[in-house]
Design a protein that fits this description.
about 650 residues, alpha/beta, Aconitase, domain 3, Aconitase, domain 4
Length: about 650
């Protein structure tokens, strides 16, 4: 029998299409789905349009955690819509206030050995308990809820072998920053990182989840830990011992690559502005004043994390010139902190206790002041994501954040002033904010869907024409994130209203993009986006493809495109081209004419063609599977399914 690693074990049990050794992509069966409200409204509108009576997954959960500010009617409209959809179609509904999707899913639903697909890029948090958990666009979740397969590039598996044990003052965040230091935020498309080695046993489940969560920043398909005795203890303490099963790599299993991280010498690290891949040591950065410390988000919001912060702050006060905000991951975490006195410690220390929601992480709360230095335990520090373009955001561990809150400067935890927080033997269970558990999978047919004015319809794409004539609507550089393409923060409330949200496409790069695109569209010209390396990093938000489609964008030509965004482009009928010769990028100017003769034939064929941009010949390539070809030719997945 072939010796298998944990990834192969889980994937082979879920394989429904393709051969991972021979085909470029494979289809897998999805056991569980999750959505959050900012991507969920679109996912469910698309699900509705598929005409399916109820979800066909083992469990599907709809979380409300992103749009919780409720200034104006839009967010509340979205919540009501989501609640009624959940009831009708057999989806569990996690009410606003219950917590952040990834932390909640880990606590209450995640199951080792299963597959989870979520309309959020940090869905791989579930890898912390041995799930193959993958982030995708909303329409892919809709298809999975309807019983369809999900497609990923046939993965290459990199074993990240952990040895040794972390020293006091360092934690999981430093480990994933170490991995990011090595592999960066681009060039990892198609890989799955599997954590192995003796060091794994020294990490509790929340620590593993932090590491798996930030695999999203590497751009990998997902990250997976084994399901071992530590996982068993965690699930038993969550009163879910029955969900545990052991998943370990076979002795002697081989992976495509291996990287060893010795945990013992790992020192406190931070990601400097404006990329999670800009890794520096806290030691070299220590000293300067900080203005803001934000703790929590789906990366570091477990009981272990916030209790650690409370122990650091016990009996002390945060520095006068620093504002400190803390967002816990779930009600369970808050209840435990209330019970053991941590909440009182944090309040007394002068921290602002925020809602259990995404809030600050997505620029929807506590934006820092102009030019601020903000230390944060979340996972992304893209320019402007905090809501303040001039702010300098550094990503750090809860330990570094807590010490720095006390000193008001970037502070180095050389040794921990506190004992490590042990993994709780028994978590308090209160599932009362998960609605419709009793009708999960069955639904309540006849439930009326609530549609306030913020719930618009989903626009449909058009079939790909034989030839394309258009304009370079924008030329952008390397590492353009989905936050550049489709900003969140103050604009997040328009997620369920595509015409309105489309007004903000590329707002941080060029606020005239929307008007110029519509003017071109009116003249019958296609809009084309030209980009550098690693286009579409970050979020799973399909709006970064859907809204451009609405504005008449028909093709993206880039040096490289990240996995989730590329899949979203295909799903909305936008052709994802790369340059055969990346140097051709340099000569292209915004506003130049683009002629792509025979685009349809090329998509049907080998995906190689020569376009004319500004009169120059430019060779383009789009490598598509047969499934993807059919989607693009039809004008997107929804156009195909109707
Ligand atoms: C993010 O962290 O950027 C988000 C907001 O959670 C996104 C999802 C979205 O844009 O709604 C993600 O990570 O996929
Ligand atoms: Fe929410 Fe931030 Fe996590 Fe995205 S990364 S799910 S915005 S907490």
């Amino acid at each position: 029998m072939k010796k298998m690693n944990a990834v192969e074990k889980i994937l082979s049990a879920h394989l429904v299409e393709g051969d991972p050794c021979a085909d470029p992509e494979i289809g897998i069966r999805i056991d569980q789905t999750l959505t959050q409200d900012a991507t969920g409204t679109m996912a469910y509108l698309q699900f509705e349009s598929m005409g399916v009576e109820r979800v066909k997954t083992a469990v599907s959960v709809s979380y409300v955690d992103h749009n919780t500010v409720q200034i104006g009617y839009e967010n509340a409209d979205d919540h009501d819509f989501l609640q009624s959809v959940a009831k009708k179609y057999g989806i569990v509904y996690s009410k606003c206030g219950n917590g952040i999707c990834h932390q909640l899913h880990l606590e209450r639903f995640g199951k080792p050995g299963t597959t989870l697909l979520g309309s959020d890029s940090h869905t791989p948090t579930g890898g912390g308990i041995g799930q193959i958990a993958i982030g995708a666009g909303g329409i892919d979740i809709a298809v999975a809820m309807a019983g369809g397969a999900f497609h990923i590039p046939s993965p290459k598996v990199r074993a990240i072998r952990l040895t040794g044990k972390l020293r006091p003052g360092t934690s999981a965040k430093d480990v994933i920053l170490k991995v990011l230091e090595k592999f960066g935020t681009k060039g990892n498309v198609g890989w799955i990182f599997e954590y192995t080695g003796d060091g794994v046993a020294t990490l509790d489940v929340p620590s593993r989840a932090t590491i798996a969560n930030m695999g999203a920043e590497l751009g990998v398909t997902t990250s997976v830990f084994p399901s071992d005795a530590v996982t068993k203890q965690f699930l038993e303490a969550q009163h879910r011992g029955g969900d545990w099963r052991e998943i370990l790599p076979d002795e002697g299993a081989v992976s495509d690559d291996e990287f060893v991280v010795d945990l013992s010498p790992v020192e406190p690290l931070m990601a400097a502005p404006h990329s999670p891949g800009n890794i520096v040591t806290v030691k070299e950065m220590a000293g300067p004043k900080v203005n803001q410390i934000m703790i929590g988000s789906c990366t570091n919001s477990s009981y272990r994390d916030i209790r650690t912060v409370a122990l650091y702050l016990k009996g002390k006060r945060v520095a006068d010139d620093v504002e400190v905000g803390i967002a816990c991951g779930s009600r369970q975490v808050v209840n435990m902190l209330a019970a053991d006195g941590s909440l009182a410690i944090l309040h007394s220390a002068g921290c602002r206790m925020l809602e259990n929601a995404c809030g600050f992480c997505i620029g929807a709360h506590m934006s820092p002041r102009t030019g601020a230095v903000s230390l944060r335990t979340n996972n992304r520090n893209f320019e402007g994501r905090s809501g303040t373009k001039s702010a300098k955001v550094y990503l750090v561990s809860p330990e570094t954040a807590a010490l720095s809150a006390l000193t008001g400067t970037v502070a180095l935890a050389t040794e921990s002033p506190v004992e490590a927080v042990p993994s709780p033997a028994d978590f308090p269970i209160d599932d009362s904010m998960f609605l419709y558990r009793d009708t999960a999978g069955k639904g309540v047919p006849g439930t009326e869907i609530v549609r306030g004015p913020n719930i618009a319809t989903v626009p449909k794409g058009e079939a790909l024409p034989a030839d394309l004539r258009g304009t370079v609507a924008i030329k952008v550089g390397d590492k353009i994130t989905t936050d550049h393409i489709m900003p969140a923060g103050a604009r997040l409330k328009f997620r369920s209203n595509v015409p309105e949200y489309s007004k903000y496409v590329f707002e941080p790069c060029d606020p005239t993009f929307h008007d110029r695109c519509l003017a071109n569209k009116d003249k019958g010209l296609a809009n084309v986006i030209v980009a550098g390396e690693s286009y579409g990093q970050g979020s799973s938000r399909e709006h970064a493809a859907l809204c451009p489609m609405y504005l008449g964008v028909k093709a993206v030509i880039a040096k490289g495109i990240e996995r989730i965004h590329r899949a979203n482009l295909v799903n909305f009928g936008i052709v994802p081209f790369t340059f055969a010769n990346p140097a051709d990028y340099d000569a292209i100017n915004e506003g130049e004419e683009v002629e792509i003769e025979g685009i349809r034939a090329a998509v049907e064929g080998d995906g190689v063609l020569t376009a004319k941009i500004g009169g120059r010949e430019v060779k383009l390539v789009t490598k598509l599977s047969e499934r993807e070809k059919a989607v693009i030719l039809a004008g997107g997945l929804l156009a195909m399914k109707r």
